[in-house]
Amino acid sequence: MGSSGHAVAVRCAGLLMAASTLCPAAAPAAGDSIIVPPVVYTERTLANGLQFIAVRSRTSPTVSVQVWYHVGAKDDPNGRSGFAHLFEHLMFKSTKYLRAEQFDRLTEDVGGSNNAFTSNDVTAYHEVVPSNHLETLLWAEAERMANLKVDEANFISERAVVEEEYRERVLTSPYGRLGNAMSSSSYLVHPYKRPSIGSIEDLEAASLADVATFHSTYYRPDNATLVVAGDFDPKQLGDWVDKYFGAVPRPAAPLPRFNASEPAWRVDRSATVTGPQVPLPAVAVTWLAPPVTSPDSPALQIAAALLSGGESSRLNQALVYRQQIASSASFDADLRAGPGLLIASAVAASGRPLAQVEAALLAEVRRLATRPIPPTELAKVKTQILTAALLSRQTPTGVGMAIAEAAVLEGGAAQVNAGIEALQRVTAAQVAQALQRYVLGAHKVTITYRQQAGAEGVSK
Q1: Looking at the predicted structure, is the pLDDT value of residue 371 above 90?
Q2: pLDDT above 90: residue 14
Q3: What is the C-alpha to C-alpha distance for residues 321 and 258, in angstroms, rounded to an integer?
Q4: Diameter of the chain by CA atoms?
Q5: What is the chain's percent helix, strand, coil content, to nearest 5?
Q6: Strands 123-130 and 269-275, bridge-based pairing
Q7: How confident is the model at residue 29 (pLDDT cuts 50, 70, 90)?
Q8: Gap between the Cα atoms of 444 and 186, Å rounded
Q9: Binning pLDDT at 50, 70 and 90, where does residue 212 land?
Q10: Distance from CA of residue 132 to its chain's centroid?
Q11: Could you give phi then psi for residue 206, rounded to 5 degrees?
Q12: How crowded is residue 301: how many other Cβ atoms within 10 Å of its Cβ?
């Protein structure tokens, strides 16, 4: 996340210091806080429905251009998981006026970079270049929005790339299958059940007609958010956005409305997943979490940081160092546009029974939910979270990411500032109450991960 052009400072032991300066190792007093200047931005919607947000910063002669499409793995057609991920790749192929992979030439060859990612809710493309190349990037992003070539050659080549990613990240990685199972074994009916990376079987079953339909349905200006952050002239930027993006026609067909829900979990469930090369067994426990827009979201983020944010976190200290029953342990608040997951997981230490690891994992979560949280510990974790956010916002790419996420997922661009304020207001009581509501008072799914029978490995 990036900078708004304001000076950012951190208050350490009552002294105002530069954001690049880390606070002393000792936990800050509960009354200390981080000084957080607001991100200043402009926002408007073009006639074709495109949301446009600009954040100006003159701290460096660079600019980030980002286009976030409001389509993710949750929108993949039934039996066609991985379509959104496939389009993350297809958008780098040829258009009417761009050759395949020309985005690399327009960015890397001038000292910049480009990338993209797919999540359950969005597919986002982002570049950073010297600011004198801004107009070129705006034209190129509008060009691939309007004139992407969805042809057989591009489809076949990029499908093969996505399938190879699946083999590398899921089939070859020792714990890749466990990562997929956290969603597929947890959700009952919600499309979040389908991992965003897709599957080889679904990708192989897809046709070019399927791909063309998906593109025309979702890749359109009224389903996208454009963010430009960094060094630019506001009047000139506005003219360029109108010239290039304003010319992209809005399709006549209405956008499909996403309508899915996840029923309350009525019983505890369990699943066993195996892999061919599992060095040590692992366990994951999941609970249903509220959407990221929930008032409980900040408290759950703080809870996750208390449990697994760094070397001094509770799970790391208790399971890895003191009890020495796990080689790693974590707690994640995976908050999404829809129902998310709270995930406690651990990899067992060599020779330690998985049941013992699971019991210790749950005990630490329960301890946080039922016992007083020391004020210095809460203050320390808030400082870690907020300082990390502010440091990331020192780049055009970072501030662009922050405001795009706020606009697309968190209820509006204003959340880029309101979210930071909400984190600072979280109390120890709110952390406990959130865990009691979503963890202690809720049903869970327990996933055990072991070496598959007959396969070589050391997992037991």
Answers
A1: yes
A2: no
A3: 45
A4: 67
A5: 40, 20, 40
A6: unpaired
A7: very low
A8: 8
A9: confident
A10: 30
A11: -75, 150
A12: 22
H or E element at residue 156:
helix 152-166
In angstroms, the Cα distances linking 273 to 239, 327, 449 are: 54, 19, 5
Q: Which residues of 260-271 are buried (b: 16+ CB within 10 A; e: fewer)?
A: eebeebeeeeee
Percent of the chain with pLDDT over 70: 91
Whose CA is closest to 121, among 184, 188, 76?
76
Tell me the one-letter amino acid at 21.
T
Q: What is the pLDDT of residues 219-244, one digit of tens each?
A: 999 999 999 999 999 999 999 999 99
Q: Phi, psi (5° rounding) for residue 330?
A: -155, 165
Helices 415-425 and 396-409 pack at an angle, to 10 degrees, of 90
CB-CB contact of 417 with 38 (8 Å): yes
128: nearest Cα among 393, 394, 396: 396
Residue type, 274: T
In sequence order, what E strands does 143-251 have? 224-230
Model confidence, pTM: 0.89
Q: What is the CA radius of gyration of the chain?
A: 23
pLDDT in tens, 45-103: 999 999 999 999 998 999 999 999 999 999 998 888 888 898 888 899 999 999 988 99
How many DSSP H helices and E strands does the chain contain? 15, 14
Q: How far is CA 51 from CA 9, 70, 252, 288, 326, in A?
A: 31, 11, 18, 31, 47
Map out the domains of the chain with their CATH numbers: 42-244 (3.30.830.10), 269-451 (3.30.830.10)
What pLDDT score does 208 carry? 86
Q: CA–CA separation, 331 vs 337, rounded Å?
A: 20
Phi, psi of 150 (to 5 degrees): -100, 85
Q: How far apart are the first and last CA of the chain?
A: 42
pLDDT tens digits for 425-442? 999 999 999 999 999 999
Tokens standing for residue 332: 């994640």
pLDDT at 5 exceeding the cut of 50: no
Would you state the structure tokens that stand for residue 305, as one six-digit string? Answer: 């940081």
The residue-averaged pLDDT of 292-299 equals 98
C-alpha 25, offset from chain centre: 29
Active site residues: 88
Q: Are 275 and 174 spatial neighbours (Cβ–Cβ below 8 Å)?
A: yes
